[in-house]
Backbone:
């Protein structure tokens, strides 16, 4: 019987290696806070963190950055006055800024087997300096590569033992695309449901993209 | 001066006047966020928020906050009846794929060729705040900009021959709504569609670094 | 009040022009049969038809091909012994064969603003002859371009007045991606529902991709 | 001959033996379609069908047919509890993105370097039947092929040094299950994992155009 549930967060994250690329969803909500705490406790170092925003001074993103475990941050937005901004200014954090839509599309590309794609986003900006561009149908486009993760930490509202997930409202955000972009997708779910309880047409993230699930009640 | 510049809410209200029923609209952070407050309830305009919300509604009453529902500014919102949720890649497919009738962004500067600069104030700014602006700027069917006509600090004009700040995208702006006027980008440069009451052509031109055109 | 419903199929299809690229979903089910009949009656000519399979001797795809309205067929599969196969053999139909996954991805690219992408699918085959390839991370990849439609004819189970749709089981197939890939998306729906009846988290095709809806009861 | 070649169901059953619980598997049309019939019900294997079905189940009873639910061969199927539906682009994202543990395809020929030919019998075949084979061949974590060892017509071997038919994909096959043997692609070429009872190494080699290796 397939059962992707693991007993606790420590078991779910035990084998995350130093140097791993970590995909972290969340946009005002939908961030797997308990898994982030678990990753801090687990202690893997030299991580690359992929997350939409570098966060502020508190919260999961700030905490994992402040822990010193991250070598590099890939995101669309960093405040100068934040843990991320100060670490970068001090030369303690590499930074790669990616437009938010390109970030989402690069993650999807990683999950979908697209090996590279051309987008007009950013093509006429500083972000294109030194990079490959091409004019397609009169539009200047930037060549972008997939952004696969070693591990995605995912937040869900419901999960069944096959790893089928639902997400609440806008807490869906990056969760489904990061789930599909990682070699190992670990989920924290608020609710455990029986197989078949989620209607087949309304699964938001199919279990094919999910490897481990931990039940984290509210 | 016999004119009174619009305040930020006034700019938002002026923009709202020009949005017809049925449009899908994305509102950037800053002045644009306020536009939805000025669309009357009986005019159905569907607001898209890039974190996967189609049909964003006004802020909830304090006792009705849903922690799972925010907009691109991470403010608590409601969902209009008929709204729906998608994930981030699908949400930006809407933005980048040309499905938004309109995007309204704030900006530091707009140039007469439609260039927009709204993400970084200098080339050596150490930390970057791109967010979704570059995606929205290139993807929407129409890009309108909402900003003050002149900067608060040194009083320079944001209406430029050429942008002095790093670009967000080239040649994408259709209209600019400022506290003084409504401008459109034409093959000749900035055309003036509207001015606030009491403002003269000369007064507006004085406050614009680029040349303005009247038809 | 937004209301995308139009009174009948003729009104929905009236302005389809000669030379249009028509996107036609369906894979054993989920094909908008009534809209296809309407397009045959409407009579636009010199069409390019994009559909997964060239069909057999009967059915909507065979009917629209047999009508002589189509100049070109873009699909993943054509039987020699079919209307499509015989028209092609007789030199009366241009044919572009696209692997099924590349077809789906090119449609999504058109809908998502991706201007081109690299895929390993087909790169080492006859389909790559004379085309641009590139080795990415050791894999030979083929450069593929978006496949936008002028018109998508879409099948739905439920629709509301904003054009939000649901699809039944595997009848979903190409419907959502073709809806997003066309300049004009026309839907036939089995059921009309009130705005809000489809739960917001379970809309399969959001109304942002839909322009006209016709109610076609079973 | 003291051996009895497997029939098509026998090949399918032999493949089913090697599929462990928990794998996501796509079955091509032809012999592979039959594989699912031979996976015992208590072993959970999740079958993907490229038209958007995750968790395809067996054919329904004639009075339980759901016209909205077919597999990639457009046959009526059922959905297993826990199954779900996605659209075509998402379905091929599963296939092309490396999320299938296994794909089993039929083929005309397999070469010792893992090349597969399964879509066109000749370069000048006037009409093309590609379907999803090229996508599945490049995308799955493992590609196994199910086919008869020799062709029915001229009796030539389908186990080749080099494919003579147009390729579907290069260097992607991991294993070949035929009516005579189970072969794997190794750096040295075809390795023999298993033969049917009564078959000798010499007899299998005679029926294979490529050189076989035993470890």
Residues:
């Amino acid at each position: 019987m397939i059962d992707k549930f693991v007993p606790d967060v420590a078991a779910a994250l035990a084998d995350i290696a130093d140097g791993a690329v970590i995909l972290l969803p969340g946009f005002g909500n939908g961030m797997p806070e308990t898994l982030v705490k678990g990753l801090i406790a687990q202690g893997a170092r030299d991580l690359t963190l992929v997350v939409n925003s570098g966060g502020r001074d508190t919260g999961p993103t700030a905490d994992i950055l402040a822990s010193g475990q991250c070598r590099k941050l890939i995101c669309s937005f960093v405040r100068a006055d934040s843990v991320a901004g100060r670490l970068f200014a001090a030369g303690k954090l590499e930074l790669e800024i990616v437009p938010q839509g390109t970030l989402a599309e690069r993650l999807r590309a990683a999950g979908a087997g697209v090996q590279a794609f051309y987008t007009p986003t950013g093509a006429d900006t500083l972000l294109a300096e030194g990079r490959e561009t091409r004019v397609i149908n009169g539009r200047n486009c930037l060549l972008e590569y997939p952004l696969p993760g070693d591990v995605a930490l995912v937040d869900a509202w419901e999960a069944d033992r096959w790893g089928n997930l639902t997400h609440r409202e806008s807490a869906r955000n990056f969760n489904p695309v990061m789930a599909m972009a990682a070699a190992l997708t670990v989920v924290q779910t608020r609710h455990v449901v029986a197989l078949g309880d989620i209607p087949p047409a309304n699964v938001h993230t199919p279990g094919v993209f999910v490897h481990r699930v931990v039940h984290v009640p509210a | 001066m016999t004119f009174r510049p619009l305040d930020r809410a006034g700019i938002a209200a002026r923009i709202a006047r020009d949005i017809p029923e049925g449009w899908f609209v994305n509102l950037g952070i800053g002045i644009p966020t306020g536009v939805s407050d000025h669309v009357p309830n009986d005019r159905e305009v569907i607001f898209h928020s890039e974190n996967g919300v189609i049909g964003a509604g006004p802020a909830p009453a304090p006792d009705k906050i849903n922690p799972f529902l925010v907009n691109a500014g991470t403010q608590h919102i409601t969902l209009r009846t008929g709204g729906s949720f998608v994930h981030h890649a699908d949400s930006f497919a809407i933005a980048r794929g040309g499905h938004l009738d309109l995007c309204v962004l704030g900006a530091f500067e707009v140039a007469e060729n439609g260039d927009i600069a709204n993400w970084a104030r200098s080339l050596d700014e150490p930390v970057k705040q791109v967010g979704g602006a570059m995606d929205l700027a290139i993807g929407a069917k129409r890009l309108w900009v909402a900003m003050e006509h002149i900067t608060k600090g040194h009083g320079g004009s944001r209406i430029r021959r050429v942008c002095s700040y790093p670009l967000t995208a080239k040649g994408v702006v259709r209209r600019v709504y400022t506290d003084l006027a409504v401008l459109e980008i034409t093959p000749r440069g900035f055309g003036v569609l509207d001015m606030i009451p009491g403002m003269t052509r000369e007064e507006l031109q004085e406050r614009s670094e680029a040349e303005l055109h009247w038809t």
